[in-house]
UniProtKB/TrEMBL annotation:
Domain of life: Eukaryota
Protein name (record): Ankyrin
ANK repeats: 372-404, 406-438, 439-471
Lineage, highest ranks first: Eukaryota, Fungi, Dikarya, Ascomycota, Pezizomycotina
Cited InterPro entries: Ankyrin_rpt (IPR002110), Ankyrin_rpt-contain_sf (IPR036770), GPIID_WHD (IPR054471), NPHP3-like_N (IPR056884)
UniProt entry tagged with the keyword Repeat: yes
Length: 486
């Protein structure tokens, strides 16, 4: 395995795609390899998966790949040349699956099973005749029918079945009570755009937060009394997976919420979502949550206080980790920029340090092991928040002050995360390119470890020392020669 590849893998904690390709090719030399990639269109970072598939398409080895996906253009281009099977061309098999599913639901649903056999036959025939190969459509209709209580209401429903999935989703949203509409909108917003799935307890907390809230009491008074009400509000749009996390029932729900179709229907337009606006709302709510009075006293001093804080504020860990991700994809407004700027100012130091404690607890075992010397500049640089870095530099922040757990400077943070625009700004402000942390690791050591040639060249451009030794007495020039940078 190439040294550069192993370094790239070490940076993220996961194998790089080059490493995976090398592993697949090695195994394929000695064994028959079968790879299954299910729901490629729903995969985060699918560009990397598509590039991987393209890279091994011409390998003359025993590699069999089965990919399932909708026919998105980029997917079609990447797998062009592979033998394909379209579900639309296998309608008879799909219809048999739908038929089996309908029979199962009619037999096992407590409410539907009580109805006379004649109405169950009508349900079965109507759904089979109108499903047109849409399994998800049939599922939604069964869900809706199972909530009805009379034969008359079922027959009326069968007479006006929607013809498309979008119409189905519109009907579900139209049936939401006015007083529940805003709650459901927030639920769908969080579940559609969350960086990691939320539990019911976390989601209960998340949808209670509003911009401008100051106290934890305000959040508690806005919480749903029972988190399971989320599933009642979400009807056929949500599901809880085996791990206890809430997800959309199907990717088509998100597609509809983002579509132009929902925006043109006055009755349901309030549920429509926009990528930039959604991330702005989530970023705002996360920062608002971290700025509540519950964190105003600073980091907890005992483990009991720590555990009590996490119990009182179920969204803390998610908000601490997630807000910067939402911020990067958010539509930027003056209100959001001010909120972020205020979070990093000296006035917010107790809250900022509470965040540092929570943030570090995500990846270390001890609740009280975090950098007491953490600086706003280091974390702003590490997360690539260019505007915040500009503001902090402008107001006189110490450019070379230790800020990370191991005493890294803001330049270390920007280097580690490969934020070259932040690095350049720090250099212009006078950052020392060879300033070492507590372990004598310089930014150039960091750049060499992650193997980014562009970052290394930028550091060398600003005269970073090539002969500095880290705590392992390893010469930088030797490491760069291995990486074929010099």
């Amino acid at each position: 395995m190439a040294y550069k590849e192993s370094l790239t893998s070490a940076k993220s904690g996961r194998p790089s795609w080059d490493v995976l390709k090398g592993a697949v090719n090695w195994f394929a030399t000695n064994y028959k390899i079968k790879i299954l990639i299910d729901a490629l269109d729903e995969c985060q970072g699918r560009e990397d998966v598509l590039a991987f598939l393209d890279s091994i398409r011409n390998e003359k080895k025993a590699i069999s790949i089965l990919v399932t996906s909708r026919e998105d253009l980029d997917v079609k281009d990447a797998i062009d040349g592979y033998r394909g099977l379209r579900m639309e061309d296998r309608r008879s098999e799909v219809d048999r699956d739908i038929e089996s599913y309908i029979d199962h639901r009619l037999a096992t649903n407590v409410n539907l099973n009580k109805f006379p056999e004649a109405i169950k036959v009508d349900i079965r025939c109507s759904l089979l005749n109108k499903s047109e190969g849409m399994f998800r459509w049939a599922q939604c209709q069964i869900d809706a029918l199972s909530r009805l209580r009379t034969v008359k209401s079922i027959r009326a429903k069968l007479d006006r079945l929607p013809t498309t999935l979008n119409e189905t989703y519109a009907n579900i949203l139209k049936s939401v009570q006015e007083e529940d509409a805003e709650l459901l909108r927030r639920i769908l917003l969080w579940v559609s755009f969350t960086i990691v799935p939320l539990t019911l307890d976390e989601l209960q907390e998340a949808i209670a937060v509003e911009a401008g809230m100051r106290t934890l009491k305000e959040v508690k008074e806005s919480r749903l009394n029972d988190p399971k009400d989320i599933l009642s509000l979400g009807s056929s749009l949500l599901r809880v997976c085996e791990t206890g996390h809430v997800k959309l029932a199907h990717l088509s729900v998100r597609d509809y919420l983002l579509s132009q179709d929902i925006k043109t229907h006055p009755d349901v337009a309030k549920f429509s979502l926009d990528h930039g606006e959604a991330n702005r709302e989530l970023a705002t709510n996360c920062i608002t949550y971290l700025s509540l009075d519950g964190l105003a006293n600073g980091p907890t001093k005992t483990q009991d206080d720590w555990e009590r804080r996490l119990d009182d504020q179920a969204l803390l860990k998610h908000a601490a980790k997630g807000w910067t991700y939402y911020l990067r994809d958010a539509d930027q407004t003056s209100e959001l920029r001010k909120l972020v700027s205020d979070f990093f100012t000296v006035r917010s130091r107790p809250i900022f340090m509470s965040w540092i404690q929570i943030l570090n607890s995500n990846w270390i075992f001890r609740w009280d092991e975090y950098p007491r010397h953490a600086t706003s500049l280091y974390y702003a640089a590490s997360f690539g928040l260019l505007d915040v870095v500009k503001e902090l530099v402008k107001t006189g922040a110490d450019i070379d002050e230790p800020g990370s757990r191991f005493g890294g400077t803001a330049l270390h943070g920007a280097t580690l995360r490969e934020h070259t625009s932040v690095m350049e700004l720090l250099f212009e402000a006078g950052a020392d390119p060879s300033k070492a942390d507590f372990n004598r690791v310089t930014p150039l050591h960091t750049a060499a470890r992650i193997g980014n040639a562009g970052v290394i060249r930028l550091l060398l451009k600003f005269r970073a020392s090539k002969t500095a030794l880290d705590s392992l007495d390893f010469f930088m020039v030797e490491r760069m020669m291995i990486l074929e940078i010099c």
